[in-house]
Amino acid sequence: MILLLAGLVISALAVVMIRDLLKAAVSLAVLSAILTVILFLLKAPLAAAFELSVCAGLITVVFISTISMTKLRTKEEVAKHQVERRRRFRLLPAIVVAMLCAGVALMLPHLGQMIPAGVPQVAAAADTAVFWNQRQADLLGQIVMVLAGVLGVLIFFKESDKP
Amino acid sequence: MLVPFLFIGIPLAAVVILNALNWKNRWISLWAAVAVSVIQLGLGVWDLVRVVSTGTPVSSSFFGNFTVDSFAAIVLTIIGLLGCVTALVATGTIHESRFSFGSALLVLLMGMNGVVMVRDVFSLYVFIEVTGAASFLLIAIDKKRDELEGAFKYYLMSALATVMMLLSVAFLFVLSGGTSYDGIAAYVASLNGNYPVMLNAAILLFVIALSIKSGVVPFHTWVPDAHSSAPSPVSVVLAGVVIKVSGVYALMRVYRDVFLNDPKIGMALAILAIASILVGALGAIGQSDIKRMLAFSSVSQIGYIILGVSTGSMLGFVGALMHFFNHATFKSLLFTDAAAVYHQTGTRDMDQMGGLGAKMPYTSVSSIIGLLSMSGIPPLSGFWSKLVIVIAVWQVSPGLAIAALCLSVLTLGYFLILQKKVFFGKLNPAMDAVTEVGGSLRFVEVLLSAINVLAGLLFPVVLYYLHMRGIL
Questions:
Q1: Residue B447 pLDDT > 60, yes or no?
Q2: Rounded mean pLDDT of B418-428?
Q3: 3-state secondary structure at position B237
Q4: Which of A1-10, B277-286, B374-383, B442-451 has the lowest mean pLDDT?
Q5: Best residue in B103, B121, B131, B200 to probe A by mutation, most A CBs within 10 Å?
Q6: Taking all residues of chain B, what is their mean pLDDT, rounded to a whole number?
Q7: For chains A and B, what is the number of CB pairs under 8 angstroms?
Q8: Facing residue for B197 by CB, picked from A113, A139, A142
Q9: What average pLDDT does the segment B219-228 reach?
Q10: Do both B87 and B166 map to the same domain?
Q11: N or C, which end of chain B has less CB nearby within 10 Å?
């Protein structure tokens, strides 16, 4: 599990730090795949199935389609951007690792107190009832979100409106 | 009862029809947004009258559980009004992207309406995300560099807020076994104030997340950049209603209906509120960009709304709701005036302006009305809301009430700076050819000025009515 979590953090850093958008999208797919395995190990097969199909599958396809609509930078733009990126992201891995270590060190002694003894264990039936049967409103929200995404592609990648 | 669903169904149908057919007239998108907003305004008023007369909320279970009580009906009406005003301002200021603008505005309306009507924290998260996505599109719609930068900053802060909110929802689900407002509230009530660490963490995350969305200090840094870089009508809707619905409304609803006006949360909110009033006002005083000044002013005025909510009393809540309405009207009026000045002069730098009062009389007078209302000068609407908030805060903490009163002088400060630099004084020779705006911008200025004045005259009647009903 620790190896998987480390892999998760490394692929997340890769998504942010890799220059090539296509490789960053692939790193995101790798991150989703690792998360899928973690969710299976934590006995959440439904969440794992959705993570794999939606995040590792559908979202990667959407990202790659969008990236295919972008224009490549010239060599001069790449060189200038490379210098700025190196300066900006130099400390990012160190900051992330430091924050993780600090978080673990602070939370580890108090893990037992985080969930009080009397809290009812969430049963699979409660999961199904709350996160499956009562989500009609969210379905409408997701339809609107997909519309927003389509509009976004039209706004940012289409030629300007005719007069 | 289908009406609550219509607040999402009608804009959804409009977006689908607009984008499915090939319209020759590209203006139709904006006029469709105006029409849908006017329908929403009518439905909101109808729902409010129905809820007040029957005493029960209006619910719909068609495609989701949506409920409209009196609080939601008032906010839905405000959203309808601001949607109409934004689309009208866009007809006078947006040219290239007008078709996309209308569609994106309708998506924004759907998102905000969903935030207002849901009774579930997870659904609240979903619709806040929809509102954020639509806002991002609108801010960056012209694809200019500063717009994209402002939109990106806004989206980063919004993403941080929604991640915290999602974590909080997960904690609340583990503790209470559900995600509905009523279910979580029942669990919180059963604890009698003895909250476990996990619940405290959930409350902290939720309050911080919604404070980021509201633009409350110290999470306000994205507000001036997003407001100033956005196109003019987007600034109107962002300041007028978006940050208030996706942040302040959600905070009010969750604080009252889920966390049951917990006094410890109230104290934290009061501290954030006073900090926002102070920092927002001081930030506004130091600005030379008219839109950045108004953006910092929004931070300050939202502090007053949060201060009213933090009292936990019905009087404070009513004051906060009144200021919610007033801020929507006077801030959107001021951003419309800023749009008028920018489009006629070509600049937002107040140091280059001066003496525009004679050249732009409608804009000048409407800005005076908006700023006087914001400063809490009677008999305009802002006076009544600030008065009710200060009285409510006085009942809980006289010291905080005195602080809020003293800090309101700063509002007058930046009001006078704006008026002196832009409309009064000697006319800058470079501005000699400037003329007053016409068409939709002038109509919006007159409309919102009239609303500010009428609301100021009618608020005492509303307060008397609430007193007679035993609510105050």
A1: yes
A2: 88
A3: helix
A4: A1-10
A5: B103
A6: 92
A7: 113
A8: A113
A9: 91
A10: no
A11: N
B178·A162 Cβ contact <8 A: no
The residue among B432, B206, B243, B396 whose CA lies nearest residue B319 is B396
pLDDT winner (highest mean) among A82-91, B330-339, B347-356, B429-438: B330-339
> What single-letter amino acid sits at A70?
T
Residues 6 or more apart whose CB falls under 8 angstroms from that of A34 comprise: A4, A7, A8, A11
Same-domain pairing of B84 and B185: no
The closest of B175, B283, B179 to B221, measured between CA atoms, is: B283
Mutate to test the interface with A, among B6, B101, B107 (most CBs of A within 10 A): B107
**Torsion angle of the four alpha carbons B239, B240, B243, B245, in this order, in degrees rounded to the nearest 10:** 180
Sign, CA dihedral B48-B52-B57-B59, equals: negative
Same domain as B313, residue B282 = yes
Give yes or no for residue B401 having a pLDDT over 80: yes
DSSP symbol at A42: T
- Tokens 């954020």 correspond to B132
Instruction: Examine the domain organization and report whether B278 and B292 are in the same domain.
Output: yes
Q: At what angle do helices B398-422 and B381-396 cross, to 10 degrees?
A: 150
- Compute how many other C-beta atoms are within 10 angstroms of the C-beta atom of residue B472: 18
Q: Is residue B134 part of a domain?
A: no
For A111-142, the pLDDT digits (tens) are 666 555 555 555 555 566 677 777 788 888 98
Domain count, chain B: 3
Question: How far apart are the C-alpha atoms of B382 and B375, rounded to whole Å?
Answer: 7
For residue B360, give the 3-state DSSP assignment. coil
Q: Is residue B310's pLDDT more than 90? A: yes
Question: From the centroid of its chain, how far is CA A110?
Answer: 28
Q: Note whether A137 contacts B63, CB cutoff 8 Å.
A: yes
- Hey, is the C-beta of B466 within 8 angstroms of any chain A C-beta? no
Q: Which residues are bridge partners to B60 per DSSP?
A: B66
More confident residue, A65 or B189: B189
Residue B29 and residue A162 in contact, taking contact as beta carbons nearer than 8 Å: no
- Say whether both B388 and B244 belong to one domain: no
Angle at B48 between CA B47 and CA B51, to 5 degrees: 80
Q: Is B175 in CB contact (< 8 Å) with chain A?
A: yes
Contact B143, B230 (CB under 8 A): no
A40-98 pLDDT, tens digit per residue, is 888 888 888 888 888 888 888 888 888 887 776 677 766 666 655 556 666 777 777 78
Range of the domain at B470: 261-472
Same domain, B168 and B252: yes
A160 reaches B (C-beta below 8 A): yes
Q: How far is Cα B240 from Cα B233, in angstroms, rounded to an integer?
A: 10
Query: What distance in Å separates the CA atoms of residue B2 and residue A110, rounded to the nearest whole number?
Result: 49
Q: What is the pLDDT of residues B235-290, one digit of tens each?
A: 999 999 999 999 999 999 999 999 999 999 999 999 999 999 999 999 999 899 99
CA pair distance B364, B356, nearest whole angstrom: 8
In Å, the largest CA–CA distance within chain A is 66
Tell which residue, B111, B99, B98, has the closest CA to residue B158: B111
Going by C-alpha positions, the residue among B232, B160, B166, B177 that lies closest to residue B202 is B166
Dist. CA A94–CA A76, nearest whole Å: 29
Cβ–Cβ under 8 Å, residues B360 and B436: yes
Tell me what pLDDT residue A162 has.
46
Burial A151-160 (b: 16+ CB within 10 A, else e): bbeebbeeee
